[in-house]
Amino acid sequence: MLAQLFRIGGDGLPPFEGGLADQRNRPEPCRRLTETARKHLVDSRDEGRGPRGEADRVFHFAGGLHHALRERASGFCYVNDAVLAILRLRERGLRVAYVDIDAHHGDGVQYAFYGDPHVLTISTHERGERLFPGTGFVHELGEGDAAGFSVNLPLEAYTDTQVYLPAFEAVVPPLLARFKPDVIVAQRSTVKYLAGTTAVVS
């Protein structure tokens, strides 16, 4: 029954004929959640309300599906809501910074904008040698005109606040100040670092 509801094929993966940006590939509940968040954040700018008006900040409670790729689902992520929001913001000519503080590297978002110098992606995460998705190394910097616009801060397992906060403060605020984004999209994590543990669902 769930397979029919979410149009999942025999291999357990949904059909992706047109990729994740193709609205036909999103099940109705996902589409409604994503569209509601997008409307309040992105479309409010067209109506003169954002970024200082009614939609200064928007929280998408079902968001954070940063592993989904254009051609396939990945890491339990079916729809990359951050990518869809950023694409909409880019359609309006806005510079976007994406800051991801999940314990896993935000690979789907990084790859979506790896060649776009108008999107800065920053991801702090546990090192890829030990944790899914196995990416997010410091040498992943972007390509072409966007070289240097993909920034990864891989951290050791068991990283605690005493290490994390100084590392974050040394990297993220200076990059944002230099990039001067119109909008910041933040993946604030369902999976965090806890002292004495590795990536633990909190």
| Cα radius of gyration in angstroms | 17 Å
Task: Please count the helical segments.
Answer: 5
The outline comes out as: globular
**What is the overall pLDDT average?**
76
- What is the helix content? 25-40%
Distance between the termini: 29 Å
CATH superfamily: Histone deacetylase domain
Largest sheet, if any?
Answer: 4 strands, parallel
- The tally of structural domains comes to 1
| CATH class placement | Alpha Beta
| Helix-strand string | HHHEHEEHEEE
Strand order of the largest sheet: 3-2-1-4
CATH-assigned fold name: Arginase, Chain A
Total DSSP E strands: 6
CATH architecture: 3-Layer(aba) Sandwich
How large a portion of the residues is in β-strands, by DSSP E?
Answer: 5-15%
Helix-strand makeup class: alpha/beta
**Residue windows where pLDDT falls under 50 for at least 5 positions:** 1-23, 49-53, 194-202
Question: Key terms for this structure?
Answer:
single chain, 202 residues, alpha/beta, Arginase, Chain A, 4-stranded parallel beta sheet, two-stranded antiparallel ribbon, 5 helices, 29% helix, globular, disordered N terminus
